[in-house]
Amino acid sequence: MGLIREPLEVDFFVDPRPLTEKEKRMISDYIKADKEKRRNKKTSKKGTYTQQTV
């Protein structure tokens, strides 16, 4: 993890509280849905090209 440089006009505030179970579940569900969407996108490209042997 590296150093984050702040732009001059922007202030970053970090909320150090722990996540609730609902928030953890929401993040987990989002990650699962995103992975599934990416997996389907990759597999849909397969099969568009066919290789013929001579």
What does this structure look like?
The chain is mainly alpha-helical. 46% of the residues lie in helices and 0% in strands. The chain has 1 helix and no strands.
Q: Could you tell me the mean pLDDT?
A: 80
Q: What spatial form do the alpha-carbon principal axes imply? A: elongated
In what range is the share of β-strand residues?
under 5%
Give me the count of strands.
0
Radius of gyration: 21 Å
| Separate helix tally | 1
| Poorly predicted spans | none
From the N-terminal CA to the C-terminal CA, the straight-line distance is 53 Å
Largest sheet features: none
Question: What is the element string, with H for helices and E for strands?
Answer: H
Sum this structure up briefly:
This protein has 54 residues and is mainly alpha-helical. It is 46% helix and 0% strand. The longest helix has 25 residues, at 21-45.
List the helices and strands and how they pair.
Blueprint: H1 21-45
Descriptors for this entry?
54 residues; mainly alpha; 1 helix; 46% helix
